[in-house]
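Sanity check

After download, print the first record. It should look like this:
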Amino acid sequence: MLPDPLNGRSEMHSWIWSFPASLMLTGTVFAALMGIWVQTRPTFAGRSAFVGMWLSLCWWCLFVVLEITVIGVENKAMFARWTWPAIIAMPSYWAVFALRYLYGWQGQIRLKANWLCVLPSIILILLAVTDTLHHGLYRSYLPLSDAFGAQLRYNPGWVFYSSAFYLYLLMLSVLSITILSLARAARLYRRHYWSFLIASLLPWIANLGYITGYWTLFDFDPTPFLLLLTCHIFAYLMWRANLFDLVPVARNLLIDSLIDPILLLDEQNRIIDANKSAFQLLLGHADDDLIGISISRWPLLDQWIKTADGKNLEWQGQYFEFSQTFVPASASVRLLVLHNVTARILVELELQKALRVLEEQLNENQQLQLKLREEAIRDSLTGAYNRRFLEEVAQYELAHATRTKQPISLVLIDFDHFKQINDRYGHAGGDAALRAFTLFWQQWQRTGDYCIRYGGEEWLLLLPACSADQAFEVIDLFRQRFSEQKIHLEQCTFQLTFSAGIAAYPQCMAELPVLLAEADKALYAAKRSGRNRVLLAASLQSAASD
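Expected structure tokens:
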């Protein structure tokens, strides 16, 4: 055991309080409150590591208080050793915080992937707290003076220097990251980065002065005192400068977070850089490396890029648009962006499918409407138009005739002795006669003429652009030919005649009731005069005689 120059005085007083101890105790409480306060604030990248920094400082300050106040060389050395978990952990937390806050690094610390950061810290902490077994941290330690409760001067060992080398290397890395971020940061974030630099440099400058023997504070390592100042700087920045309210995200995080694959190709079409989406697209995962691989390994993509015909690329169920740009710094380096348009294409395909379905439904509806209209305006037995259609077509044709000063004729037809047909051959005979008349007229009529089943065995013929004389010639000849037709019904045949009355515009008014009334009078005149004949309305006959 090392000699204790205090001799028996340590037995009288185990602890001695001082201003440095009060200052450190205040710092311990402040660091703990700082960690709790940050934890309750809105989350930001690296918040957990930032809280870990101040909890480590709390640990450090607490054991510094114990080291300052305790009496006895071995007791002071014991508490000094237990400050080292915080001494090593705090820069490690600082490095993780810098990576996550400045670069948006979201990965979890894993021994395999980050052993340079995690494993050395664990080894150094174990060596520090077990220093009594090997004295690699402190080879020896003696009081600075004969004063009661004097602090110790430590003679560092290989563990101390290894830890210092590791921590300074870690801190230089953090400073490099901060300086690089400062160089390309937006104006708003530069104040944050300068604050990081100043706040982190102060304790390290103090620590460097202590290690080289040029600077102590209260006969003690000034590093924890300067860390408390750093803590106050961060508290001020968060309270007054809104630090962490706006969190910067580095360009590489933005690029890696893009859903669009991005490739950088050299003049030999080798991949010299790519983002995570490109790894996922080409390899199916992001574990292997794409760098140095020629794009010709993927012939479909290579051919698509070479042709650049503007067509979308379908790749593993996804769709991409292609754009390439030559990097200004090197005319041979190309930046390829495969814009993922899968969502848009899938929506377009669904819309096209829905449009086809709608078109089919529309066609079906149109056909159904036409069918329903035909059923509404057609006689179900004969297929001729019905009286409902007459109301529509007569209004249009009569108005057209009046406007164009063209004649139009209306013919009413009634079968002769139709009741005898029904009595002799039944309703089947009557139906056959009606169908035969319709079929015969369809072969006889002019284009634009209308045949309407007016009711029972009565028919109405509307003949646009046809004068009374023309109508008489057409209908009378039709009467003769129809009377010669044989109507077949199962084992028998029969013949049928009809009588007709004709009314026409302009001799009659171009109004449907007037024309109907005149034609009806002519029809009954034909019936009374012996049937099987065609007569003109009285107004037409008087006009002809005049």
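If your output differs, re-run the checksum step. Summary of this record's structure: The longest helix spans residues 342-377.
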